[in-house]
Amino acid sequence: MDLHSIKVACTSCNLRELCLPMGLAPPEMEQLDHLITNRRRVRRGAALFAAGDPFTSLYAVRSGFFKTSVTTADGRDQVTGFQMAGEILGLDGIVQDKHACSAIALEDAEVCVLPFDKLEQLSREFSALQHHVHRIMSREIVRDQGVMLLLGSMRAEERLAAFLLNLVQRLHARGFSKSEMVLRMTREEIGSYLGMKLETVSRTFSRFQEDGIIEVKQRYVRILDPNALNALVNHAHTGGTDRVD
Amino acid sequence: MDLHSIKVACTSCNLRELCLPMGLAPPEMEQLDHLITNRRRVRRGAALFAAGDPFTSLYAVRSGFFKTSVTTADGRDQVTGFQMAGEILGLDGIVQDKHACSAIALEDAEVCVLPFDKLEQLSREFSALQHHVHRIMSREIVRDQGVMLLLGSMRAEERLAAFLLNLVQRLHARGFSKSEMVLRMTREEIGSYLGMKLETVSRTFSRFQEDGIIEVKQRYVRILDPNALNALVNHAHTGGTDRVD
DNA sequence: CGGAACATTGAGAGGGATCAATGGACGTGG
DNA sequence: CCACGTCCATTGATCCCTCTCAATGTTCCG
């Protein structure tokens, strides 16, 4: 059976509480269903879109896992995020009518295609949808600020701790374990995201394991002491006056 | 005379080509004028808004200079951007109905207040305005990705070079010199933005000066060799094959 | 079974942080 | 107008976290 004929409407989608229709009333959600006529499958390693591609649509991840990355002229690239089910890709393309980053599937994935002109049209009719689109873009801006904080002011241990906590929290919101996960990305991709080299990522994983904070076996990670991870993220390490007041 | 009574409409504002009304047709711009009934002055050192403040409006910088920063529980903070005339502040507040970062004036400033509910209402009527709001948010997302690239994959010299080029380019777009500027922020604020310590910022400035790339005297900076700065930003420094072709 | 991709670990080097002192710029008040 | 304090910038010396280079181990798949 053709994938595109599998009708999974927003109204009946199990991601509706996380995804674009979040908080919308039934009539608005039905309108969204009309907008999403098209689904797209992306194989592991393939690009949903690449930097420079013309922008036409946003994408809602239905299943699978993505990374987004930007590349400089001289070939360096920086992973700017990892996206899982219910998250929206492609917001970077609006301003220039072409994508500023690339989105690569880290495992076989499926996305709902949201033609942006139609989405704008519908947002003009439904103020709840309009506001929701604004919230999604604002959320991305706030997320980016968090990454800047991480990259600009944290040391390697803190970065990796924050990364693991963020990841497991998002997975937990999707019904997965609160303490276990299988990473979909390589050490190098984690390192690129966190602004450190893959060896440093690996070493930091090992140190966490030695300290009994996590259990790591390649891509598998289990958080044994979430408080220790939280402490790493939330406490400054300058001066030694680690007061918790 | 009261500041608020000084009517400077978008239609006659000298920033209209850079600011929110950019590219809008005259009738839409007039509608914007009705929306912006209120101006606000912010003294040097004062906050336009602080993290946690309830979100009501976006702000368009009319004059002056701002920094935005986020703060962690343990008191570390990270400057996430510097904003000058024509740039929009406050997009971070939409998602949670409260601001996620603080905006501090680095010199006496004046902003146009854009009540967000009214802006949403107006964008439902005018699709050009609607799209423009989306472009502004997308632009911020793309800018943030650039900062991540800078923080995640550049060394100190490259960061400062990119910073200076970005700043002078934005100033030039506002009619200032292409090669000279007076920095409105301290070394510490630059350092926070670029993820380095103030001493490193200062040392890097000095090195650039020794190399004849720039001339620095405290806050005054003159770019003597823009190509050298560009080369720093665009060429990888791994392997030692620093060809300048 | 062999190869490719990925992860781990070690040794050594270096870039930026840290600690510390000095020097300018600017504003305020005598 | 100068003295003084404050804030900011510069510069030096030293340390250490992370990078780099390199070798080995593991997993997966043709």
Task: Report on this structure.
- The structure is a homodimer of 245-residue chains.
- In chain A, strand 8 and strand 9 (220-223) form a beta hairpin.
- The longest helix of chain A has 27 residues, at 127-153.
- Helices cover 39% and strands 23% of the residues of chain A.
- By secondary structure, chain A is α+β, with helices and mostly antiparallel strands.
- The first copy, chain A, folds into 2 domains: 3-149, Jelly Rolls (Sandwich), CATH 2.60.120; 154-237, Arc Repressor Mutant, subunit A (Orthogonal Bundle).
- In chain A, strands 1, 2, 3, 4, 5 and 6 form a 6-stranded antiparallel sheet that branches.
- Chain A has 7 helices and 9 strands; from the N terminus they run αββββββαααβααββα.
- Chain A binds a DNA duplex (30 and 30 nucleotides) through residues 155-156, 186-188, 196-203, 205-206, 218-219, 238.
Percent helix of chain A, as a range, is 25-40%
Q: What is the number of domains of chain A?
A: 2
Backbone structural class of chain A: alpha+beta
Which value, in Å, is the CA radius of gyration of chain A? 19 Å
Largest sheet of chain A: 6 strands, antiparallel
CATH topology term of the largest domain in chain A: Jelly Rolls
Give, in order, the helices and strands of chain A: HEEEEEEHHHEHHEEH
Oligomer class? homodimer
Overall 3D shape of chain A: globular
Low-confidence parts of chain A lasting 5 or more residues at pLDDT below 50?
1-5, 239-245
**Average of the residue pLDDT scores of chain A:** 91
The percentage of residues in β strands of chain A lies in 15-25%
CATH architecture classification of the largest domain in chain A:
Sandwich
The separation of the N and C termini of chain A measures: 60 Å
The CATH C-level class name of the largest domain in chain A: Mainly Beta
Q: What would you give as the CATH superfamily of the largest domain in chain A?
A: Jelly Rolls
- List the chains of the largest interface with their residue counts: A-B, 51 and 51 residues
